[in-house]
Amino acid sequence: MKFRIENMTCGGCARSVTATIKDLDEHAHVEIDVEKKLVEVESGVHQDEIIAALTEDGFPPEVL
Q1: Using CA atoms, how far apart are residues 48 and 4, in angstroms rounded to an integer?
Q2: I need a surface site. Which of 18, 29, 30, 39 has the fewest CB within 10 A?
Q3: Which domain holds residue 24?
């Protein structure tokens, strides 16, 4: 699944986004491009759960 997170502006934001996803699935594969504000996730967790967790943590994603 791919997301764009407009307010992800730095490495600290990227680490927070990764930590949020890893809290749901420690085995998730997360790739982040901060410059393009893109997040790609491979996980067994349903997309809606990831969206809800990221939104709750202040990083509302747009599904691509």
Answers
A1: 15
A2: 29
A3: 2-63
Looking at the whole model, is its pTM more than 0.70?
A: yes
Token digits of residue 2: 């791919």
Residue with tokens 């990083």: 59
What whole-number distance in Å separates Cα of residue 40 and Cα of residue 31? Answer: 5
**CA angle 14-54-46, nearest 5°?**
115
Give the count of domains, the chain.
1
d(CA 16, CA 6): 14
Q: What is the pLDDT of residues 18-56, one digit of tens each?
A: 999 999 999 999 999 999 999 999 999 999 999 999 999
Q: For residue 63, what is the DSSP state?
A: E
**DSSP per-residue string spanning 38-62:** EEEEE-SS-HHHHHHHHHHTT-PPE
